[in-house]
Design goal:
The protein has helices at about 5-15, 50-55, 65-80, 90-95, 95-110, 115-140, 140-150, 170-210. It is mostly helical. The chain starts with 5 loop residues before the first helix and ends with a helix. It is built from eight helices and no strands. Its main location: mitochondrion.
Length: about 210
């Protein structure tokens, strides 16, 4: 092959895609110590007398991501629990704690795969569901709402005020609806007047009977 000219070499170098190294974001499961036991084996009394090899096999070092998520959810439950025996409150039983973990995992996945539209849609749905749950908790128990947001690290922002864009089409439609409503009220006026007179006559007859 003949040697390329310097201009062609520069053009080829310019057209070559530049690979940018993405900044790795820390995973929410990195703070779990590898020596911690799995959720199903943590409270067993027999674990104090087993061999170190067995403990290592049953620890988070050999655990899957699903098993690590169970431990993380249990930690979040301990943070928002009202009492040691609380298992039925809204913040414990609801999907606030699970939603935070799933949203964070989807964020990490989308950071590595930004073109995954299906998971992006799922993450937006989870965020919207969590906002509804927080809005309900804010209306019902504001002190619990503040404590839940603080413990789970959730930043809640009030929804913006609804504003309709005034267009010519919307003004024409509104005027037409008002006109239709007024015409309907005119058609119903004789019937309403008749009902009112019947009610007044019944009330007058009832008063005369009492007298």
């Amino acid at each position: 092959h003949p040697a390329c000219s310097p201009a062609l070499q520069a053009a080829r170098g310019y057209a070559r895609p530049v690979t940018r190294k993405r900044k790795e974001i820390p995973s929410q499961l990195d703070d779990l110590p590898p020596t911690m036991l799995k959720k199903d084996y943590a409270n067993l009394p027999i674990m104090n007398s087993v061999d170190d090899v067995v403990k290592r096999l049953l620890s988070l070092e050999m655990a899957s991501q699903k098993e690590k998520m169970k431990v993380k959810i249990q930690q979040l439950v301990e943070k928002v629990r009202r009492s040691p025996s609380d298992n039925g409150s809204f913040e414990v039983q609801g999907k606030l704690k699970t939603g935070r973990i799933l949203i964070r995992m989807l964020e990490e996945h989308l950071h590595r795969h930004p073109k995954d539209k299906n998971n992006k849609r799922q993450m937006l749905m989870d965020v919207d569901r969590r906002k509804k749950l927080l809005s309900y908790l804010r209306r019902v128990r504001y002190d619990t709402f503040e404590n839940t947001c603080k413990q789970l690290g959730i930043q809640y922002s009030l929804p913006p005020a609804y504003r309709r864009r005034v267009t010519k089409r919307w003004l024409v439609k509104k005027a037409f609806c008002i006109k239709v409503f007024q015409e309907a009220q005119k058609l119903k006026a004789p019937e309403k007047l008749k009902q009112r007179r019947e009610w007044q006559a019944r009330a007058r007859a009832a008063r005369e009977q009492k007298e």
